[in-house]
Design the sequence.
């Protein structure tokens, strides 16, 4: 929701110890908007940077200025204003990256209990939790006062649906926490500066307006007293709240010296220019296979407020010290013309592009790659998610990693609601977070989309390991209602030869097949973590798509995928890293291609690349006219198979520098391995010839020590 990074105030880099007596000469404290992976979700980050030296540092030179970009390792605390997916959805992924040392401000601990059900690092996650009932949180930078607000119960208002009051009480839908933040005075200033104050407030709907307007703590900071002057109010509020006359009067009471920042769906700035740049350049290679990205634009008109407001933009900053002011130098902007000119100036690029623009294909099935990276979302490759459009009105999602909804927004723009309504089923291959942590958001946004388009709601079929259910139950019981949005078909029950499929799951499977006009939906267990599955989809018209999920080379997958039209197979690591692939239970590029060859697949799309290959993976000698490389937002139809191998020469021209860099790294790694092997062999050789002498010396030493040991034993 919003985060603090007080470690940056200490003026030390990761890997060097902090000084015992750090005194920043001129601290710079700012509030910065963070980019999120979902188009509708925003947050703010408070950071401090020491612009002076730190004479107390024990090692390393004094750095006159910290790096401009804060490292994620500086993150100490996360404050959550309420338990909804828009606020807490990024926490599992963030927890994988950051060992949080300081408290997580949370309405309740059940959400943390729920995400610990995930396998891997989250299971061992250890976070200190400070509940909303705690009055304040303090560190060396500021004091954060927690202000619980109880609003009118709004979950079923106007919907005609009955509310489960007991379940609703567990979820706390009528409770949010605001945060009043007071920075400590600067020690070197005279007279003493009382320290800036800013307020972070979420008012999710009109039911909270009275609670906000009548809060006594807020009123004290609206009386014009200098030490209670609020520099900035961050409003995480929808337009309906901003239009409310009560809320507008409350905003006015802060006076002209307060800045107002609004974060909601109307904050539609591009959050990741790198992704747009790559897609714009890929679009030059093939406009149909690499369509241009769009941005989600809210259809709701912006409210007219009685006070000046600033609409949120990604990486917009508001400095609290030394001077209170907005800073826009880091705000993300896109310049498509510059992206195009950069690509056209590359050697051989235009020549290669001319060879691969032919296209005359049937529109369905259509495969849209939404996430082609592994482990964590990055600027260019998001984590696993692939949309299969079987017709103009039916779609299937293969895995659903963090940020999947945001990728749908960037790909489909204003059509995203219809795409969500077309989505009938989601297949989750296994329980690693990068394959399913976007599911809850898809469920929430899908329900909203049905209501927005006035269409009758229907639950989503969820084909997933049974082990996903404890997590979904925990979230449903303690956070938000979601179980009514899914009909679960356990992956285990779709393995060939399984006879103990439950009647309800059998009924759901029959409906799923009918919805997509499928002849078969089959799974097989693959060699990755426990309860990891691949799937095969066969249409009544005869086409067959196979999706590997995460796996090592696996004969069960080969058998299930026989004669597939398309195999989408993970290729996490490059050739030469077979040992690492075994350790991580993944496949190399050649192993993935060989799996496709063994099953006689018509075409193989490589997917799920390690983020070390952010732009493009290294090419294997096994590449042929039957192999392609997946990119985020790539759109593939069966008729594109002959054209996709022709994309490789322009791709090599576009990413020539990156390929050279990766090949150099590979050569260095191979050279290092050769040296290590030679060293081991040399030690073994010398060890054989000197072993008797070593044994004699060791035996003599033991004989000398023996009396002492006996003496100690007696004592």
Sequence:
């Amino acid at each position: 929701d919003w985060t603090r990074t007080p470690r940056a105030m200490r003026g030390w880099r990761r890997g060097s110890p902090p000084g015992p007596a750090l005194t920043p000469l001129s601290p710079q404290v700012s509030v910065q908007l963070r980019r999120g992976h979902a188009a509708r979700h925003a947050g703010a980050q408070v950071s401090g940077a020491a612009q002076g030296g730190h004479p107390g540092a024990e090692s390393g030179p004094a750095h006159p200025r910290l790096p401009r970009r804060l490292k994620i390792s500086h993150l100490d605390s996360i404050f959550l204003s309420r338990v909804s997916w828009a606020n807490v959805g990024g926490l599992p992924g963030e927890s994988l990256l950051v060992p949080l040392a300081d408290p997580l401000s949370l309405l309740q601990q059940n959400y943390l209990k729920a995400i610990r059900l995930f396998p891997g690092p989250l299971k061992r996650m250890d976070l200190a939790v400070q509940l909303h009932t705690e009055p304040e949180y303090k560190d060396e930078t500021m004091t954060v006062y927690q202000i619980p607000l109880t609003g009118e119960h709004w979950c079923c208002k106007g919907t005609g649906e009955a509310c489960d009051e007991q379940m609703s009480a567990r979820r706390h839908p009528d409770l949010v926490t605001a945060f009043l933040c007071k920075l400590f005075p600067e020690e070197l200033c005279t007279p003493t500066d009382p320290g800036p104050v800013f307020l972070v407030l979420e008012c999710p709907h009109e039911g909270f307006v009275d609670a906000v307007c009548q809060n006594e703590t807020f009123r004290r900071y609206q009386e014009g007293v200098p030490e209670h002057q609020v520099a900035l109010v961050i409003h995480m509020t929808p337009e309906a709240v901003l239009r409310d006359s009560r809320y507008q009067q409350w905003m006015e009471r802060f006076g002209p010296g307060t800045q107002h920042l609004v974060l909601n769906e109307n904050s539609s700035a591009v959050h990741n220019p790198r992704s747009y740049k790559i897609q714009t350049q890929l679009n030059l290679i093939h406009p149909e296979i690499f369509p241009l990205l769009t941005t989600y634009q809210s259809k709701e008109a912006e409210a007219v407020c009685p006070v000046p407001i600033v609409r949120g933009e990604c990486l917009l900053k508001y400095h609290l010290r030394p001077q209170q002011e907005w800073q826009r130098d880091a705000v993300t902007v896109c310049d498509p013309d510059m992206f195009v000119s950069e690509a056209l100036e590359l050697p051989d690029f235009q020549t290669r592009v001319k060879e691969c623009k032919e296209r005359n294909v049937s529109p369905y099935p259509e495969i849209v790659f939404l996430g082609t990276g592994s482990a964590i979302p990055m600027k260019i490759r998001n984590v696993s998610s692939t949309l299969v459009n079987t017709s103009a009105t039916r779609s299937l999602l293969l895995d659903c990693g963090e940020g999947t909804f945001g990728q749908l927004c960037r790909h489909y723009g204003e059509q995203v609601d219809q795409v969500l309504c077309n989505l009938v089923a989601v297949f989750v291959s296994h329980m690693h977070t990068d394959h399913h942590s976007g599911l809850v958001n898809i469920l929430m946004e899908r329900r909203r989309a049905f209501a927005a388009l006035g269409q009758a709601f229907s639950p989503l079929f969820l084909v997933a390991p049974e082990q996903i259910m404890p997590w979904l139950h925990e979230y449903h019981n303690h956070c938000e209602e979601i179980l009514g949005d899914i009909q679960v078909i356990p992956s285990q029950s779709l393995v060939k030869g399984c006879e103990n499929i439950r009647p309800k799951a059998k009924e759901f499977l029959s409906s799923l097949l009918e919805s997509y006009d499928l002849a078969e939906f089959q799974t097989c267990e693959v060699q990755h973590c426990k309860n990891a599955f691949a799937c095969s989809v066969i249409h009544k018209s005869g086409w067959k798509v196979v999706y590997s999920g995460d796996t090592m080379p696996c004969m069960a997958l080969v058998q299930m995928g026989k004669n597939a039209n398309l195999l989408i197979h993970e290729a996490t690591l490059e050739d030469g890293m077979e040992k690492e692939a075994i350790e991580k239970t993944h496949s190399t590029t050649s192993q993935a291609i060989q799996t496709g060859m063994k099953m006689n697949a018509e075409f193989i799309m490589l997917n799920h690349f390690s983020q070390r290959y952010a732009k493009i993976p290294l090419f294997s000698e096994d590449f042929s006219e039957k192999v392609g490389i997946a990119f985020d937002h790539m759109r593939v139809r069966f008729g594109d198979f002959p054209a996709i191998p022709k994309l490789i020469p322009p791709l090599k021209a576009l990413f020539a520098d990156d390929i050279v860099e990766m090949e150099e790294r590979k050569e260095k790694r191979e050279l290092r391995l050769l040296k290590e092997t030679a060293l081991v062999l040399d030690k073994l050789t010398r060890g054989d010839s000197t072993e008797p002498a070593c044994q004699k010396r060791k035996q003599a030493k033991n004989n000398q020590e023996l009396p002492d040991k006996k003496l100690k034993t007696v004592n």
Notes: The longest strand covers residues 142-150. The mean pLDDT is 81. The radius of gyration is 29 Å.
